Amino acid sequence: MTNQEIWNMVLGEMELALSRANFTTWFKNTSIISRNEDCVVVSVPNGFVKEWLENKFNKQIITSIRKLLPEIRDVRYTMGTVASLPPEKKDITQFIPDRIMEEIRSNAEVNSITNLNKRYTFDSFVVGSNNELAHAACLAVVKNLGKVYNPLFLYGGVGLGKTHLLQATGNKVVEDNGIRKVAFISSERLTTEIIESVKNHNVEEMKSKYRKLDVLIIDDIQMIAGREKTQDIIFDTFNELYSKNKQIIFSSDRPPRAIPALEERLRSRFEGGMIADISAPDYETRLAILKLKAKEKGSNMDEAILGHIATTVQKNIRELEGALNRVIAVNQMYNKALDLKEVKKLLATYLNTPYKKTTPQLILKSVSDFYGIPLMDLTKRSRKKEIVHPRQVAMFLLREETKSSFPEIGQKLGGRDHSTVIHAYEKIKHAEETDETMRQEIVLIKERIYQSIDH
Prior knowledge:
CATH superfamily of the largest domain: P-loop containing nucleotide triphosphate hydrolases
Shape: globular
Helix content: 55-70%
Low-confidence stretches: 81-105
Distance between the termini: 27 Å
Mean pLDDT: 83
Largest sheet: 5 strands, parallel
Strand content: 5-15%
Strand order of the largest sheet: 5-6-7-4-8
Number of strands: 8
CATH class of the largest domain: Alpha Beta
């Protein structure tokens, strides 16, 4: 087995475990350049990626590699690029799975100045009831930069199209007016830039670069939670751009008020413009997405098969496309079109994951992680708002997801009386039914709970 085949397996697993922004930030331009009987050497593009892989992902990488090479005990990282490989190793595309090749092609289409991928356009974005407000807001922004919906804040769960819509907006601005200075960046990458600028003593130079923009687009802004220096620089940059009527756009997996460890001054800035959510697509939208993706890939797939996928995959668009890609890949491999019965069998393990019961411990951890508070704070007698609200949400979820009795829930959360739990449960249940923001919070926390079970 070649080094590239081994690394492709690692990339495939990391791509499924991480957001697209994180995967691209930390695994782009990486490869295995050598290995011996017990060690693998991985090439990385710079020192920050090297440090991050060593400290954050090394255990996962070793675990992935040992599935194929049980004898491997260590992975080391060295700065370099795929371009430095010897000639006989450069022609590796024949071994790369379709999803990795798609990532490579995608990266090749990214503008080095704006960081926008030209493949993301409004024409390739399927509008449905789940995203029509966000879509309309983005179109309005393009026509009136800095004058309406400034800032624009989009939020929604993983894989629902936020990044596509943000990049489509940036691309449309560039298309309509080529002299506009536009930049798209993930908050993870921005944080890395800030760390590097502090290290190199050129923070002001970095700030100046962003203050010259006409449109600043930051993806996954929730990732700046707890990062004081990053928040300071974003706050200063926001004020500078806003005062000049320059457009600012953010995306997040949750509304501003639900981002933990976020400075109040930034929260108020985020909430000062237009906030639009993107929810899970309905059946009609999912089917339309599948038809569009199949057409893009040159596949004339039977509508009954597309309908089966759209009916069964309901979590997010990324999983929807993943199921479609799996069917297309098998069709190509065997040079035949699978019928509906064969497709159902092929996707059985992918689509029909058996119900997995959660635990109170997992619910409490997911709630504490979501709100950015220590787990033990949920059981304390504190009456602080930032503790009381997460505790009430935990009580609601314990009742909904584990069917525990009210007295049992009270005991798990510091020995509270069952009447306190009943009050919390009814309060959150009512808020979920009447408050869209609260409903989104519950959805996002449940995603965390059941993703943890899956992994």
